[in-house]
Amino acid sequence: FSCGIVIVAAGRGERAGQSAEGPKQYRTIGGRPVIAHTLNTFATWVGTGRIVVVIHPDDAELLGSALKHVPTPADLTVVHGGATRQLSVLAGLEAIAAAGAKYVMIHDAVRPFADHALLDRCRQALLGGADAVLPAIAVADTLKRADATGVVQETVARSNLYAAQTPQCFMLEAILSAHRAANAGARADFTDDASIAEWAGIPVVIVEGMVDNVKLTLQRDISMADERLKGSAI
Ligand code: C5P
Known about the structure:
The chain is of the alpha/beta class. Helices cover about 30% and strands about 25% of the residues.
């Protein structure tokens, strides 16, 4: 089993606010940039083949400094992303395809807490024949739909509802043609890759995600991640 890895890190992270350290994937948590934690997890996983990191053209130096915090050298290629996450993923997939791979995992740089057990579950599902694998957790909160003024309109039954995470994992050929078709059809509104697979008619299989595998979005997510790592050797 050898799997190409696409780490998307080309976003500007505007919802996390401005920082001298740059976009949120380069902010320091637990003494290292967020993306260094993420890269280290993949660089030390047995299933990892080539890693493609998709960055914004302005961030080459930030990535260079972050890589000094990744102890295990990886087979790593850097490409430039696009204006949306979807375009950044496509750039990464093309780079994986150019080198050749059967499987690919697509992961947000800003999810530094995915662990090897999660990657192993994804691998098992791919080896079991799934074309598309989505780590997700069952929704625990009661869900409400509200109108634009914040008045609740209804309670949404939460049974069978899941919150999607990454890494989302695919047969490379299947997800690459789905992404190319979405791009060619000017469909630019997909916020994750499983939804592109769904749109293309590829069945998506859920594996158990991780409660801790949060996406660092706001300033408080970054502060909480830093707190959590204090004193830990992760
Ligand atoms: O903005 P959001 O938190 O949804 O971004 C998820 C991931 O996608 C982040 O790691 C971000 O860097 C990446 N991204 C990207 N290219 C974009 C927008 C987001 O690689 N144009």
